[in-house]
Design goal:
Helix content is 52%, strand content 10%. It has 27 helices and 17 strands. Strands 12-14-13-15-16-17 form a 6-stranded mixed sheet, with helices on both faces. Strands 1-2-3-4-5 form a 5-stranded antiparallel sheet. Strands 6-9-10-11 form a 4-stranded antiparallel sheet, with helices on one face. Helix 5 crosses helix 9 and helix 21 runs parallel beside helix 26. About 2% of the residues have low confidence.
Length: 600
Amino acid sequence: MGTIPTQTIEQVAAANDIVEVIGSYFPLKRAGATWKALCPFHQEKSPSFTVNPQRQIFKCFGCGEGGGVFKFVSLYEHINFPEAVKKLAARAGIPVIEERGSNVQDDRQHEARQMLLKLHAETAEWFQENLLKREFAAPAREYLKTRGITPAVAKSWQLGFAPESWDACLKWALDRGYTRRTLLQSGLVKLRDEERTDGEVYDRFRGRLMFPICNDLGEVLAFSGRILQSEKEGAKYLNSPETPLFRKGRILYGLHKTKRGLIEAGSAIVCEGQLDLITLFEAGLTNVVAPQGTAFTEDQARVLKRYVNEVVLCFDADAAGEKAAERSLEPLLQHDLIVRVAEMPPGEDPDSLVRKDGAETFAQRIAGARDFFDFWIERATATSDLANLGTKMQVARQLAETVLRVHDPLMRNEVISKVSARLGVAPADFANLVPKTSRARLPNEPQRPARTVAPAPRHEIALLCLLALRDSAARDFLLEQEWPEVIEETPGTEMLGRILAADLRPDDPASLNLFLSTLASEEESLVSGWLLQKMPPKAETVAREWWQGLRLPALRRRLKAAESRMKLPQISPGEIVTLQKQVVDLRGQLDEFSRLSPNR
């Protein structure tokens, strides 16, 4: 993959005022020379989130988060650093041209991916033009009208229509210059005979309402096509196949539009279909997602956990919907998500309920959704004769297998209490039925580290870091010293070394933001706190004094090491001469310290 040039990153930082960027997400209130707000990264009642326009950084003195404009966008949008740079570059109208590496295979894969992304983006536009302007798409427009989808909503969600033709999309794409190979890779066309790779191809989507499937950045990766009449032959929904761009089990439909609503609510309404999601979102219920299929996958649950702590399943009230809800449980619980179930009346779905009863009534249904285990226990016992000992034991073992999926100990104890109460058995007796095997980490599941806090260095080192970041004269003095040797020999000075090694300009906030972007998240929070501290007067003089305080023990350590080495057996005469010169030089430097600082 390519890398974004440092010059571009610095240019993007300079073009995006942090007060304007953060103010576009939520209101900031001026407080003297800074701006304040309630922190978006933790719950608080009094504002401790501060934005400093002079330094172009933010800092929360409640939870400790802090950094530059890239860090804020990464945290708030739940995206990585390159994505944050691209988002802010687009905001400022700055083109981002990534530098290519020397790996030819990586370059080819990157180019192929970019070509597929371009094809999907242009195809989505073509499908939409068909829907909004072509006469043959009139039935699709009428269908959307019956579902309460206006042209403006259709345009917002990039809905489109694939003509009832064997090769309309194929011909259009070939005319645009796309190759047959690229079209096959995209899944937009398919081979008539799968065993003949050089045979005829035809459009995969024909006569269908088209829903672009996007990643969380809004890039079109695939499509889902819905037939307009349920009595027609073929599947109701047809999705793109797995491609180099698209892995069905990793994508949540609508996430690029709904992630802000998810973060603000801390809860996700999960529905089955795209139209369900669009109807809910447009009705104001913006914390909604839909898996690509019915049940959640482990990858989708991992993505969702980045945004919420709870999910409310709104699957259909039929056997398939109940089965999908139960299959979703394992991956959701693996990521410690609280699961609730909002039961749909027979024959209804979220789309029909919102259109019939209104968004407020549906929101009340979501608020009253039952804990999954209450729903599941009732369903498991509803048709069972618990007076029969054999039946009770069978149900108990079945429920115990499901309790095994609950990994949080507090939640597990709560579920055990609920089940045992419903079955009329002692909690300890039911707990003994739960298998004792703990869940092993899945092969592709990353180990989730606990949130770490960067250790703060000693006061004198932290002060030197501050001076090297904030004052040009102090920084110039430090750079003139033998700082690499002193830092190498002095524990706890790693960050000072990185600050001095960086090509940064203390008076340029964009340059500081570039440096901050090279740090780990917890390090950036630490350094942003330093940047907001009050500067001492006569910064260069202070830097000289504290630097000498670091240099003195380093000189003593060097002298001790040289004297010890001279005592080693089998040392060569030449090395002894060299060490003697070092000892004389080091003692001279220490004598100079004594003359200048008699109290040391």
